[in-house]
Amino acid sequence: MRRLLTAVAFVFATATALPAVTATSAHADFDACVSHLAENGYDSPEAVAACETGAEGNLELCIQAAYEAGVDPYIALEACVLAHLPVE
Q1: Using CA atoms, how far apart are residues 21 and 60, in angstroms rounded to an integer?
Q2: Residue 87, SS3?
Q3: Helix 45-55 crosses helix 59-68 at what angle (to 10 degrees)?
Q4: What is the pLDDT along the chain (88 residues), one digit of tens a residue?
Q5: Please, which residues bridge with residue 28 across strands?
Q6: What's the CA gap between 82 and 42, in Å, rounded?
Q7: Cα(75)–Cα(88) distance, rounded to whole angstroms?
Q8: CA 63 – CA 39 distance, rounded (Å)
Q9: Cα 35 vs. chain centroid, distance in angstroms?
Q10: Contact between 15 and 22 (Cβ < 8 Å)
Q11: Residue 31: which of 85, 77, 74 has the closest Cα?
Q12: Which long-range contacts (C-beta less than 8 Å, at least 24 apart) are formed by 59-63?
């Protein structure tokens, strides 16, 4: 649980420094999130659902859902930030 709180605290610090990361986008990168999780051995339906949450604009819930699906907190953080970023 402490690792999750550390990861969430990092997300909030990053979001404060990088407002573009926290901006909700209609074109968030769900596929990048799923790919990042799969590359790291996480491909459960629950982990994929976390990416959907992140792509819909809820970064904190994405991280929490990924963590609860068994994803390492740092991998969850990276994946959810990817899900939250706009597609270029």
Answers
A1: 12
A2: coil
A3: 170
A4: 667 666 665 665 555 444 444 444 445 799 999 999 999 999 999 999 999 999 999 999 999 999 999 999 999 999 999 999 887 7
A5: 86
A6: 15
A7: 22
A8: 17
A9: 12
A10: yes
A11: 85
A12: 59/11, 59/15, 59/21, 59/22, 59/84, 60/8, 60/11, 62/33, 63/4, 63/7, 63/8, 63/11
Contact at 8 Å (CB) between 37 and 71?
yes
Cβ pair 55, 61 in contact under 8 A: no
Q: Identify any residues that bridge with 86 across adjacent strands, giving them in sequence order.
A: 28
pTM over 0.90: no
